[in-house]
Specification:
With 343 residues, the protein is α+β, with helices and mostly antiparallel strands. It folds into 3 domains: 91 residues; 72 residues, Orthogonal Bundle (Helix Hairpins); 145 residues, Heat Shock Protein 90 (2-Layer Sandwich), CATH 3.30.565. 60% of the residues lie in helices and 14% in strands. The strands form 2 sheets. It has a 5-stranded mixed β-sheet, with helices on one face. Strand 4 and strand 5 form a beta hairpin. The structure holds adenosine-5'-diphosphate. The site of adenosine-5'-diphosphate has 22 residues, from helix 8 and helix 9.
Length: 343
């Protein structure tokens, strides 16, 4: 009933119709009552006003009982909502309201439960962020502090001073990168869609990224072989570039001097499929299911630079773009990362 009146689609005309109809029904009932009172007065030999009085009292009792019951039910339903809101206001986001299907308050309760679910996810994101940030930030910060103290104590050779200053500079750079990655990932985790979609030539985008990283792969004498079919799609170019840069950087990072990286792009049905295959150290079978987790780094990666957020960012970007990312690998032989995006 309440749903019906709250429904925006219910036309005003229909409501006017209902009002007119109710009025006519009431009028009919009144006429019927008057007729009934007359008949009863005649047959029972009672005064008309006595019967009218009894009828009115009976009507009042029925009406007040019905109204009390309706208000009682409504108050109980509203109380559920008030209790839930009080819990949320006190910071308890686990609050949920039980409801039965078809309940008049169902929509309100459903939205309440959606709201608390959203609050719970924001809270866990915040806790996660605070925990990881403080944990991951400590190592480079201690290092910076330690070397800065050594420099302050003095008595160092010029060579030592230069070395410690270099370490401080590198660690500060790592901190900056970590902050950028954490902020980007938390932003991606909080959004349901990528940014503005523009027409992209995926082959040209990937080629640009390969050129951008030339210093790194050329420095390690790594051969890059490309087989890029011309594929166009609409997407958030800047975000997708994060994926290509992360995957290519990893391939370069985990491939030894003189190795080879193959980059392929083709269209498969409604998807653009990008494959980045390296001849690097590979990923152990027990690590493979976990590499897309935030901050996860395999033990064998401990000697390399990184914060374990790159693949988590790639996964989130691919998911937001309606695509997917997966990895296959064999230790000692290399890894292949496959990204598929809807065209
Ligand atoms: P990072 O590279 O900063 O450590 P990522 O999230 O990019 O973080 O990668 C997570 C982990 O996955 C790496 O630490 C490494 O153990 C593994 N990994 C990713 N790419 C490769 C690759 N091409 N070859 C071998 N291991 C890889």
């Amino acid at each position: 009933m309440i749903d019906f009146f709250l429904n925006k689609k219910t036309s005003k005309l229909l409501l006017v119709g209902i009002a007119v109809l109710s009025f006519m029904v009431l009028l009919g009932m009144a006429a019927l009552t008057v007729a009934l009172v007359n008949v009863l007065a005649n047959s029972l030999q009672f005064e008309v006003y006595t019967i009218t009085y009894v009828a009115l009292v009976g009507f009042a009792v029925v009406l007040s009982t019905a109204t009390t019951i309706v208000f009682y039910i409504m108050a109980k339903k509203a109380q559920k909502l008030i209790d839930g809101l009080s819990r949320v206001a006190a910071g308890d986001y686990s609050a949920e309201i039980d409801y039965r299907r078809g309940d008049t308050f169902t929509r309100v309760y459903k939205n309440f439960n959606k709201m608390t679910a959203e609050l719970r996810s924001v809270k866990s994101l915040r806790d996660d962020f605070v925990h990881n940030f403080s944990h991951e930030i400590k190592t480079p910060l201690f290092s910076i502090q330690g070397f800065a103290n050594l420099l302050l104590e003095g008595g160092l050779t010029e060579e030592e001073e230069r070395k410690f200053l270099t370490i401080i500079s590198v660690e500060a750079g790592r901190l900056g990168q970590l902050a950028d990655s954490i902020l980007l990932l938390s932003k991606l985790e909080n959004q349901q869609l990528l940014g503005e979609r523009t027409p992209l030539k995926l082959d040209a985008e990937i080629t640009d990224c390969i050129i951008m990283l030339e210093r790194e792969w050329d420095g390690k004498h790594i051969e890059i072989e490309t087989d890029l079919a011309p594929v166009k799609l609409e997407g958030d170019g800047a975000m997708l570039r994060q994926v290509w840069i992360n995957l290519l950087s990893n391939a370069i990072k985990f491939t030894p001097e003189g190795g080879k990286i193959e980059v392929g792009l083709k269209r498969e049905g409604d998807f653009a499929v990008v494959k980045i295959k390296d001849s690097g150290m590979g990923i152990a079978a027990e690590d493979l299911p976990r590499i897309f987790e935030k901050y996860y780094r395999s033990a064998s990666a401990s000697g390399t630079e990184g914060n374990g957020l790159g693949l988590a960012i790639c996964k989130r970007v691919c998911a937001l773009a309606g695509g997917d990312i997966s990895a296959e690998s064999e230790v000692g032989k290399g890894s292949t990362f496959t990204v598929s995006l809807p065209v």
